[in-house]
Each structure stands twice: as C-alpha cells, then as structure tokens.
C-alpha cells in the first residue's frame, strides 16, 4: 500500500512502525520541518516538508495530486480530522469523509444524528437560532442551561446558567471573559443531572473490538475550573456498554478509537458528546492495563482496515493477557493557581502505596501550563490506581483527591515535594 501520513503528533507518541511495516509499504510523511524532525532518521520512508504558513489541506494539496495514487491518508490528530478528510476527497482516497467528520466534530450535528436514531439527547439549540427567536417565544426548557462551543474540547469556554432565559440574556452581548464571541460557533444545551460516564474502546466494521465503561469523580468542567478530577473503571457496566454502542453507530463511528460521554439520568442514559479518537489523560494507559489493547496502535490498525486481533509479529497491538483488576486515575489541574510554580503537600504516603500503579509529579522548578491540560507532564500531580473492585479504587482516589494539596509558589523551589 502507498500511505500518506499527515505528521503532526510527535512520532514517539504514535510509533507508526508498530503497526505499519515500512519495508513492505510505501510510506510518505508530510509535515513542517519541526514535525518531521521527530521521525526516526533510519526509518524507511519519504519525508516531504511543507512550509507550515498556510492551512494543512492547502499546503498538502499543492504537494500531491490524485496521480500520486495513495491508498490511505492517515491523520491521528483530532485537530486535523476535517482537513484530512478534505485531502482524501481531493486525492480520491477512500476513508472518513468530511460529512462524517462534521458529525463527530460539531456538537449540534452529533446530537441531531443521535436523536434522529431515536436515542435520547439533551434538548439543544444553536446560539444564533436562540438569538433570532422572538423574546415572546416560549423557552425550549426552563432549567439550568449549558453554553458550549460546537467544536470545543477540554470544557474550554463552557458556562452554566441557572435558566435558559439567563443564558439567552448572556449571549446577547457575549459571556464575560470570552474573547472573539461568535454565536454561530456556540450552542445552548439542557443541563441533565446525573453522574457522567465515559466509554472508551475501538470499533472495527461497526462492532466493538473492546469497550470499557468508566465513571468520573467530578466533571471535566470542574477540572477546567481548577478542581481535581478522578475516573474509575466500572467492574459491572449494567448494560451501559450495549447502549453506548448504539450511540456510536448513530454518529457513524465504525472503525477506530472512540471516547463517548453519557449522563446517567434518573430514567436512563443520556448522550453528552463523542470523539472519534482515544480519550485524553491516562485513559489510554488504564484501557491497556484492563484490556491488554493499545488504543493508539489498535485504532491506527482499524483505520487501515487491519484487525488488531490478527497475529502480526511486526507489531504489538495488544498483550495476550489483559489485567484482572479495575483501574482508575486522578489528575490535579495547575492552570488556575495564579502562579507558574507550585508546591505539593500530602502525597508522600500515596507515592509508595501498593495500589498506586503510577504517580507522576512535576519536576522541581517546572512551569505549570497556562491553559487546561490533560498531559501528565504538565499536571502538578496525576496517577493511576488499581484495585479488586470499582468501590475499592473509588475509595483510594477519593482519599488522594481530598488529602493532596497543590499550592501556588511565587518562585520555583528545588525541594523534592515541590514543582
């Protein structure tokens, strides 16, 4: 096969050679000079540099044409899904189309697709439509209302209002603190009460290769607001995974990884949002520990239509023996501390705890991120916990979240417990 890889994510994060035999296939990497520098120098491939001054699709399509006869165009970056689809269309390469990407990138489109299949979603309306409605029109719902971007991630620029009327008033002039307000890029959504679950896994030909249900401790919005968060795998999914697959099929995720979030309301599961990608934070690692499957490699294999369950001596898509324990993770944000450096207190006893599989802490003197981040190398403290049951893991993570303290420092320090 002749493969065009739109190279953005550092090579060490993906390690394409685990799945793609570069000696057997013709592999072309295209990227900026800095992006291509992460590709191993001894990897058998062709590297094509693009300037990086214009859009990805614009630059790639000046470098390649349908005459290049690529079999696949590969992109693992969630930020380039649409441009990758546009490149496929122009080059005449099969794969995910722009229309399919739109459904999983646009929160209104994805909810419309789900609702069109008879599945439950929160009531919603685009902000531009809400603003053009007459003030005399009845509100579509009365209670708490969420304002969020159509294509946002990590709960950035998300606001919660007490009522729909309050939300509509706020968007007339733009929510305070939100720069570049554009109502066409936002939607209003009914706030649904209940615990939030996330479902992670890989789909192949419309069926799940593997799927794991987890429940959040806290929410992604609270994490964006500076509150520590946890996530625990569910040892008994209670039929939730079966429901999750119906939602995945509704938005057309047939091949590759997924991260689906749903709310468990009093009368059943309600769709929240979905991504055609592996989840952030420690999800890839906790999924691998539980199932033995590497989400990144398996997702790449599925997008190439190679089953991750096939035996291939050139790759390690999955381990033969999945874990027998339940796993969870915890994360402490640092972007709202009001300082570029922090001190960590209360974690000494947990770092050597037998059920703490991983404890990651910023190096002394390292700077905190300025915006929301789920990368463990940017978080003050994060880690993974193992246990015999969900309740056991929940108990330990709750203890960590309530005991450990992350405090701002004006100047960096070199103490072992500081960052």
Automatic annotation (TrEMBL):
Source domain of life: Bacteria
PROSITE patterns the record matches: ATP_GRASP
MF terms (GO), sorted A to Z: ATP binding; ligase activity; metal ion binding
Transmembrane segments: none
Coiled-coil regions listed in the entry: none
Residue ranges annotated for the ATP-grasp domain, each copy included: 111-304
UniProt KW Cell membrane keyword: no
Keywords of the record: ATP-binding, Ligase, Nucleotide-binding
Protein name: ATP-grasp domain-containing protein
Lineage: Bacteria, Bacillati, Actinomycetota, Actinomycetes, Mycobacteriales
């Amino acid at each position: 096969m002749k493969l065009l890889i739109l190279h953005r994510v550092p090579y060490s994060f993906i390690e394409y050679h685990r799945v793609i035999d570069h000696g057997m296939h013709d592999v072309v990497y295209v990227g900026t000079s800095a992006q291509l520098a992460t590709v191993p120098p001894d990897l058998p491939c062709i590297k094509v540099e693009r300037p990086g001054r214009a859009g990805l699709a614009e630059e790639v399509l000046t470098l390649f044409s349908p005459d290049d006869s690529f079999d696949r165009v590969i992109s693992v970056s969630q930020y380039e899904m649409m441009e990758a689809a546009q490149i496929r269309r122009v080059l005449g390469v099969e794969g995910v189309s722009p229309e399919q990407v739109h459904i999983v990138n646009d929160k209104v489109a994805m909810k419309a697709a789900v609702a069109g299949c008879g599945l439950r979603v929160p009531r919603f309306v685009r902000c531009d439509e809400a603003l053009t409605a007459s003030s005399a029109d009845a509100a579509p719902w009365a209670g708490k209302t969420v304002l969020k971007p159509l294509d946002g991630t990590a709960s950035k620029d998300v606001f919660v209002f007490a009522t729909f009327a309050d939300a509509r008033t706020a968007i007339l002039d733009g929510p305070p603190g939100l720069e570049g307000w554009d109502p066409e890029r936002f939607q209003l959504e009914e706030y649904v009460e209940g615990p939030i679950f996330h479902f992670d896994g890989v789909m192949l030909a419309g069926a799940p290769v593997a799927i794991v249900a987890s429940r959040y401790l806290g929410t992604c919005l609270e994490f964006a607001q500076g509150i520590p968060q946890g996530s625990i795998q569910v040892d008994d999914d209670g039929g939730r995974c079966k429901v999750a697959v119906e939602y995945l099929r509704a938005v057309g995720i047939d091949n590759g990884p997924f991260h689906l979030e749903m709310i468990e309301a009093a009368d059943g599961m309600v769709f929240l949002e979905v991504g055609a990608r592996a989840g952030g934070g420690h999800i890839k690692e906790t999924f691998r520990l539980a199932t033995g499957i590497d989400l990144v490699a398996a997702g790449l294999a599925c997008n190439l239509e190679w089953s991750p369950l096939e035996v291939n001596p050139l790759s390690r898509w999955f381990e033969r023996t999945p874990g027998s324990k339940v796993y969870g993770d915890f994360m402490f944000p640092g972007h709202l501390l009001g300082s570029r450096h922090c001190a960590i207190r209360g974690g000494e006893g947990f770092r050597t705890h037998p059920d703490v599989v991983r404890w990651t802490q910023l190096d002394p003197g390292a700077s905190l991120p300025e915006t929301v981040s789920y990368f463990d190398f940017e978080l003050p403290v994060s880690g993974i916990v193992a246990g015999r049951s969900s309740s056991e893991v929940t108990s330990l993570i709750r203890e960590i979240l309530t005991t450990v303290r992350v405090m701002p420092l004006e100047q960096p320090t070199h103490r072992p417990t500081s960052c």
